[in-house]
Amino acid sequence: MDAALNGPEPRYWEKIRTVADTLRELEGLIIIVSHVDPDGDAIGSSLGLARALKTLDKKVTWIADPPRYLRFLVKEDEYSDPINHVPVGATLVVLDSAEANRVAGAPVEGFVINIDHHGTNPRFGYLSVVDPSKAATAQMVKDLIDALGVTWNTEIATPVLTGLITDTGNFRFANTTPEVLHTAAELVGHGVKLAELTDRLQWRPTSYFKAMGAVLSTVGFHFGGLLVTAHMPSEVTVEDSDDFVGMIRYAEGCQIAVFLREREEGVVKLNIRSRGGVSAQAVAVKLGGGGHVPAAGATLRGVTLEEAYQKVLSTVEEELKRVGYI
Fold first, then answer.
1. Comparing C-alpha atoms, which of 310, 277, 312 is closest to residue 298?
2. What would the mean pLDDT of 202-207 be, rounded to a whole number?
3. pLDDT surpassing 50 at residue 316
4. Are 137 and 96 in contact (CB under 8 A)?
5. Which structural domains are found in the chain, ordered by start?
6. b/e map of 81-116 (b: 16 or more CB within 10 Å)?
7. Integer Cα distance of 215 and 233 in angstroms
8. How far apart are the C-alpha atoms of 310 and 312, rounded to whole Å?
9. What one-character DSSP code corresponds to residue 80?
């Protein structure tokens, strides 16, 4: 592998090889999980690794709840329901989860391998490979599968490429590096039909488009348009609403966008995107969440939607002042 294209730090490759050696030697059950409300990277990286390990005749259980727009990637009965306890002798592989308390599907217990690209990850687990310079956990899983010596095929490459596509915004975001494009080219070379995949990832149910109108009616512009907000009205229900924040962030002059959704009474989920030196991560961390500098999220508890808006406004104002926009 070309060191110039695959990361500058030798320690990263040492850790990847250690994880690969460990997985190859395991004889017991391997349970693969990711984070709550999984996105394309969580599903793509975990599904790709699960399929790769199965080609090595490993006993693998993939626990996931794929959102509707990603279910086309998954075969019937390929994923399993959540468990309350990790069986004795099993290994838990956690992918793309910035915190142990955000892991979905299984408790973080026993022998844990943690692979992630979030800078706020505290490096939990017996083995952890955390590299925030990587655009997606799927990029790290690509390296891990290479280190495992697995023969690539379309079924493995497709979900891994999905993780890269979704976490780079179809290769539009600032995390689209030469390394990312090189990795994507390799995956396409393994038989992925890129045009079909990118098209399929944009499909949404008809209810989504009705909800879009309701969401757009709530759009607000704050601090001279530097902050754009919107929320999901309580009477609207739709799956896969997280990408609404990607829509409002394209308002001219916007440096940070926040989409709010009341998941249940007193619980409001925030999706945050930023540009121009403004840190979505800094805003999210102050609100109890985390993520990346350009894309982050948080969940507020014990608040109404109106109170959540006030917390967002005051926190974003601090960040805009820090950067010097106001």
1. 312
2. 91
3. yes
4. yes
5. 10-200 (3.90.1640.10), 206-323 (3.10.310.30)
6. eebeebeeebbbbbbbbbbbebbbbbebebbbbbbb
7. 7
8. 5
9. B
Average per-residue pLDDT for the chain: 94
pLDDT of residue 237: 78
Which 3 state secondary structure label does DSSP give 111? strand
What local confidence, expressed as pLDDT, does residue 87 receive?
97
Cα–Cα distance measured from residue 107 to residue 83, given in angstroms and rounded to the nearest whole number: 8
In this model, does residue 5 exceed pLDDT 60?
A: no
Distances (CA, A) of 47 to 9, 38, 157, 303: 26, 12, 10, 35
Q: Model-level pTM?
A: 0.89
Mapping DSSP to helix (H, G, I), strand (E, B) and coil, where does residue 121 land?
A: coil
Q: What are 149-183's pLDDT values in tens digits?
A: 999 999 999 999 999 999 999 999 889 999 999 99
51-85: pLDDT as tens digits: 999 999 999 999 999 999 999 999 988 999 999 99
Structure tokens at 72: 């086309």
Instruction: Give per-residue pLDDT as tens, 227-236.
Output: 999 999 888 8
Beta bridge partners of 232: 261
3-state class (DSSP) for residue 109: coil
Give dist(CA 50, CA 32) in Å, integer. Answer: 7
Spatial separation of the C-alpha atoms in residues 267 and 245, rounded to whole Å: 18
Residue whose tokens read 């990832």: 201
Structure tokens, 179: 């390394």
DSSP of 19-66: HHHHHHH--S-EEEEEESS--HHHHHHHHHHHHHHHHTT--EEEB---
Element (H, E) at 304: none
Tokens of 188: 């396409």
The residue among 185, 128, 121 whose CA lies nearest residue 157 is 185
pLDDT at 234 (0 to 100): 81
The pLDDT, as a whole number, for residue 10 is 58
Does residue 211 contact residue 233 with C-beta atoms inside 8 Å? no
